[in-house]
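Incident log, support desk, overnight shift.

02:14 A customer reports that sequence design results differ from what the structure should imply. Their input is reproduced verbatim below. On-call engineer (initials T.W.) acknowledged and began investigating.
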């Protein structure tokens, strides 16, 4: 038994606890005493106040009502208008998960219905929102977790022992360093190894989707040893931050992955889609769905602002980054007050149609690791109003000449932002109603957005809670589900908008639409996201009119002529230069050192220089393979 559990047991009356274990950093106690479970008279709260850790009391499975009877009783308690859709029991943990369209009606006034369920069934109820749009992926992830509940309980307990059972490497001196395995002076393959005398933590593990030669992080460096890795923390789901995480499991990693719930779901979807695209292009996938499944089994999901230990000397808190659904900035508290770092990942310091702006207040902060995607002195974006007007005009002009508009987008974040813009313009009569075809994984990711409205900004949240106003359910949106339907969209004579992945035109249905629509000057191509160096999107955006798509076996090139109009609007989940500087200005407390990453070489150097000049803060813009000692 761990020392921390021994200490807890001293504060609990004898004979009350039948079992004790860890669920990651959380401590779970089981009791066979029904009265003690229903009212422990403040004993557990007193322990929490004393040890400053999350402690939960649950009924021992032996005293839980039989599942069949409990399900019947729960259905009697829940009002019909709550829209209860599914009840799933996790007998290993004495938890019953209740899915409903209106979770608030299941909870009841001041939690009265939850209390009634506990009292009548002796199960611990957890309420989950039923997505307004059905998501097969969410259902699959839940099935994986429920099917492997015994494995997961053991894994979480093992993780807790690593956190609480003391130092395994032997503390010699206090130091902290970060090594850039990828994402330094470049956009793509973000991966940063954080090392302390006791911990080895990987911040993100992405791929460079626009490059064949430099696609993967430098995971062959001598200091990166997979068998020593304690934890992986994923800031958000985009593949340049999460695309290589399943490969770690293929190579034998069996530790935890920390992220938010939406990040877990969206990154699994994007990873599976990447495997599918690689296979369709005749390439061998670097991992399979088995490794994605393994990753899901070992993911520990956190809420924003939830503090949790991940190793004996590192505690993390995830804060809203404003970038995409569930995107997080990672705050790391190292040692007992030794040092505090904030890794922003990708962030947006401005409120968008979809999300609230990035958080700026932290308990303590000495070192900031910030992105520079749009960090150059000329990277100042036009206002949202200007971009809306430009987009409106592009749509009107294209419709007037009976053309189609192709919007290649990132499946997560940018696509939903684009959908909200189009829905609002149609609703207000600013553009005429026309079909908006949603292709690729955009629809699946939109379904995930409707499952986690609490991560969206307050306006969208209100619309989603009132189903009649849910913007994602507008009748203008049509899902494209097959190659045959895609061909029908291409051959249809009327004007339409096509929102398709990938946003950089590197694989995915957007490339198929481009091939079909490019040679017609009536059509329009609208870029709305960052186009990395080397990507097809970047080449077209910079003016190339003849693109060699492939060379056949006889050596004859297949050339694509770009005759359609090409436009660029800035609907970005990244902060521009002005917002990055404002973020630093508003950071509380002000950091003492800033490390610049995730930007092209010149932009990283330019941002580092400007921050140093304006704020008199020490800055550094490391290269890949460089290590920075920060303490």
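02:41 Re-run completed on a clean worker. Output:
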């Amino acid at each position: 038994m761990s020392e921390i559990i021994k200490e807890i047991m001293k504060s609990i009356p004898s004979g009350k606890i039948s079992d004790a274990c860890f669920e990651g950093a959380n401590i779970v106690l089981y009791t066979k005493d029904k009265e003690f479970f229903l009212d422990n008279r403040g004993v557990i709260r007193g322990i929490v106040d004393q040890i400053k850790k999350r402690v939960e009391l649950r009924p021992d499975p032996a005293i839980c009502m039989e599942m069949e009877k409990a399900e019947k009783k729960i259905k009697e308690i829940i009002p019909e208008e709550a829209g209860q859709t599914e009840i799933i029991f996790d007998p290993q943990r004495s938890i019953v998960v209740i899915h409903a369209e209106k979770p608030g009606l299941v909870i009841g006034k001041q939690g009265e219905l939850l209390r009634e369920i506990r009292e009548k069934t002796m199960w611990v109820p957890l309420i989950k929102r039923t997505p307004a749009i059905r998501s097969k992926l969410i259902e699959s992830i839940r099935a994986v977790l429920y099917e492997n509940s015994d494995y997961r309980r053991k894994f979480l307990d093992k993780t807790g022992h690593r956190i609480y059972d003391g130092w395994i490497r032997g503390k010699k001196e206090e130091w902290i360093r970060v090594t850039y395995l990828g994402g330094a002076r470049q956009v793509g393959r973000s991966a940063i190894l954080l090392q302390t005398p006791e911990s080895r933590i990987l911040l993100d593990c992405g791929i460079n989707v626009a490059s064949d030669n430099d696609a993967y992080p430098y995971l062959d460096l001598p200091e990166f040893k997979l068998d020593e890795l304690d934890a992986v923390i994923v800031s958000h789901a985009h593949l340049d931050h999460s695309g290589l995480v399943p490969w770690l499991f293929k190579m034998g990693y069996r530790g935890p992955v920390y992220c938010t719930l939406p990040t877990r779901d969206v990154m699994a979807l994007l990873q599976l889609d990447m495997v599918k695209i690689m296979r369709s292009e005749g390439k061998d996938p670097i991992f399979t769905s088995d490794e994605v499944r393994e990753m899901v089994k070992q993911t520990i999901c956190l809420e924003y602002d939830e503090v949790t230990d991940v190793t004996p000397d590192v505690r993390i808190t995830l804060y809203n980054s404003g970038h995409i659904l569930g995107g997080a900035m990672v705050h790391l508290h190292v040692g007992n007050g030794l040092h505090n770092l904030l890794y922003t990942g990708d962030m947006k310091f401005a409120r968008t149609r979809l999300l609230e702006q990035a958080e700026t207040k932290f308990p303590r902060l000495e070192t900031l690791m910030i992105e520079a995607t749009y960090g150059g002195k000329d990277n100042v974006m036009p206002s949202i109003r200007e971009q809306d007007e430009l987009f409106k005009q592009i749509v009107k002009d294209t419709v007037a000449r009976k053309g189609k508009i192709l919007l290649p987008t990132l499946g997560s974040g940018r696509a939903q932002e684009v959908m909200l813009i189009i829905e609002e313009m149609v609703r207000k009569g600013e553009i005429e109603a026309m079909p908006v075809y949603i292709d690729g994984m955009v629809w699946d990711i939109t379904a995930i957005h409707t499952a986690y409205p609490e991560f969206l900004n307050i306006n969208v949240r209100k619309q989603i809670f009132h189903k009649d106003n849910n913007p994602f359910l507008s009748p203008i949106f049509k899902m494209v589900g097959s190659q045959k339907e895609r061909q029908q969209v291409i051959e249809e004579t009327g004007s339409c908008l096509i929102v398709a992945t990938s946003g950089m035109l590197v694989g995915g249905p957007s490339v198929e639409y481009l091939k079909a629509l490019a040679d017609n000057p009536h059509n329009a191509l609208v870029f709305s996201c960052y186009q990395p160096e080397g990507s097809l999107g970047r080449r077209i955006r910079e003016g190339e009119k003849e693109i060699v798509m492939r060379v056949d076996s006889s050596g004859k090139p297949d050339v694509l002529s770009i005759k359609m109009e090409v436009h660029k609007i800035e609907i970005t989940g990244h902060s521009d230069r002005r917002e990055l500087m404002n973020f630093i200005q508003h950071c509380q407390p002000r950091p003492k050192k800033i490390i610049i990453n995730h930007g092209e070489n010149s932009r990283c150097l330019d941002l580092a220089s400007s921050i140093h000049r304006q704020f008199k803060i020490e800055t550094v813009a490391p290269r890949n393979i460089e290590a920075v000692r920060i303490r």
